[in-house]
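Renewal narrative, Specific Aim 1. Our central claim is that a sequence can be written position by position from structural information alone. The example that follows is taken directly from our test logs and has not been curated for this report. It begins with the structure tokens describing the chain, in the order in which they were read.
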């Protein structure tokens, strides 16, 4: 049996899928690029896709439910270096869908500081959106072919300000230091 060009492409696609799944399982944060903006998002990987919850009391991912295509940037957990950027197709997961229970169970497990994990899926059903992001097989960046740019961007404008002068710090060490000898 000879390996043809389709066998090599299938092996490469399987490798990319395995790489994406392994990174998604080991990391808790990825960056989602859509509508010309990049959003940090915590996520959970369930079987074959990445799941995020947004809106309501959860992370803000404005307009993700209207997207059909999202770029996902994944970094190494060990050193924070960018490893892969892949394209995913998005779909909203509704409470009646068969993916709802496993997705929300994984998201509840990965969510820090929940008041009541048992009622959180019900709260998400009322106030938030659970989105499934499935890899399309298209990789924009991968190990060995990463661009040199740092993807730095100016922070988004915000109405947040400091209310006034910063408070005085008590018991601050004086600027004069005693001589040791």
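The sequence written for that structure reads:
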């Amino acid at each position: 049996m000879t390996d043809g060009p389709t066998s090599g492409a299938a092996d490469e696609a399987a490798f990319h899928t395995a790489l994406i799944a392994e990174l998604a399982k080991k990391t808790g944060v990825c960056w989602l690029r859509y509508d010309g903006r990049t959003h940090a998002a915590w996520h959970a990987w369930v079987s074959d896709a990445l799941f995020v919850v947004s809106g309501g009391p959860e992370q803000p991912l404005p307009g993700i439910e209207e997207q059909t295509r999202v770029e996902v940037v994944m970094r190494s957990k060990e050193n924070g270096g960018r490893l892969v950027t892949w394209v995913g197709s998005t779909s909203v997961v509704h409470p009646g869908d068969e993916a709802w229970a496993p997705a929300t169970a994984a998201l509840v497990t990965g969510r820090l500081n929940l008041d009541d994990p048992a009622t959180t899926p019900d709260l998400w059903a009322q106030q938030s959106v659970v989105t499934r992001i499935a890899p399309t097989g298209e990789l924009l960046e991968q190990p060995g072919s990463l661009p040199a740019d740092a993807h730095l961007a100016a922070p988004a404008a915000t109405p947040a300000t400091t209310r006034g002068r910063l408070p005085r710090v008590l018991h601050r060490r004086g600027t004069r230091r005693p001589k040791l000898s």
